Amino acid sequence: MNKSILLGALTVAGLAAGASAAATLDDVIARGKLNCGVTTGLPGFAAPDANGVWEGFDVAVCRAVAAAVLGDPTAVEFVTTTGQTRFTALAAGEIDMLARNTTWTYSRDTDLKFDFVGVNYYDGQGFMVPKSLGVSSAKDLDGATVCIQTGTTTELNLADYFRSNNISYEPVPIETNAEAQQQYLAGACDVYTTDASGLAATRATFENASDHILLPEIISKEPLGPLVRHGDNEWGDIVMWTLNALIVAEELGITSTNVEGLAAAANPATPEVNRLLGTEGELGAMMRLDADWAKRAIMAGGNYGEIFEKNIGETTPIGLARGLNAQWKDGGLLYAPPFR
Ligand SMILES: N[C@@H](CCC(=O)N[C@@H](CS)C(=O)NCC(=O)O)C(=O)O
């Protein structure tokens, strides 16, 4: 075949692939399933339960999107990804979205060409050590061996922190949290460093959790949130506003238990509740969804606060306080833009 014809054909094929990749909403509807990228397993955030059903704080975002778009929170294919594989999986279209404690950074947005649609957990990087190490500050870690997950923001933060404090460390690179846990407990590293939420989730699974402490230093900002590919704003909007719907539902007092009643009642509490739940206005149609999209998203796992408390909150073994992840009215950073 003539080379220019071949090149032409490839270009057209490339454009066609790009075009179909751009219409993620249509792809998801045609497939009848949302392909959602999650971790290989982090209790409280994303892990299969005893029956193999995925559950957790990040999983709840996938389920809310599936409920909004497909009308079924179980219509999700959970695709496990590591710190290394998550971005290629998203870029290649193997997943429609990634909900995997992923930090929103400049280069992931501009260079890797993803769109973070919001933040579902404001975090920061911490350190876990065995009490027996006798260390009470990260500054005392000179010369320590540190388990660190490859392909994560935590690698560079660690290097920056040690360099700026003029101390040294020896990295022990690991690929998954399960491997980190195993290596750390086997004593292959003195310290495990990652997002503080991940440390709490990991420690909660230890047989002797109280033998391990989190050091007081938080060395970075890790705004964690769901992301999609650049260039498909319609799809990005759906994931963004589903997350916002969960957040604003908490602010407005809409819960998994009262949402149906509020949507059905002749006079729900406020016009914003009406708009959100589709009994007034056309918000769903603006995203090519039906009127009940947000109602279904909230019914899937509850509002943001319910999802937090059930999976990672203070009454769970993970025991995280709301802190920065409280609603703005309660002194936190959670602030969903207006539904109008
Ligand atoms: N937020 C950081 C780190 C995220 C990360 O990969 N954390 C680990 C440790 S908590 C994890 O989730 N591992 C789960 C897995 O190995 O699949 C990033 O975006 O780079």
Reading the helices and strands in chain order gives HHEEEHEHEHEEEEHEHEHEEEHHHHHH
pLDDT averaged over residues: 93
What small molecules accompany the polymer chains? glutathione
- Please provide the count of β strands: 14
Structural class: alpha/beta
User: In terms of per-residue confidence, which ranges show pLDDT below 50 for 5 or more consecutive residues?
Assistant: 1-20
- In angstroms, what separates the terminal alpha carbons? 56 Å
| Shape, principal axes of CA atoms | globular
User: DSSP helix count?
Assistant: 14
Structural write-up:
40% of the residues lie in helices and 16% in strands. The protein has 340 residues and is an alpha/beta fold. A 5-stranded mixed β-sheet has the order 10-9-11-8-12. The protein is globular and about 65 Å long. The chain starts with a helix and ends in a 29-residue tail after the last helix. The structure holds glutathione. The site of glutathione has 20 residues, from helix 6, strand 11 and strand 13.
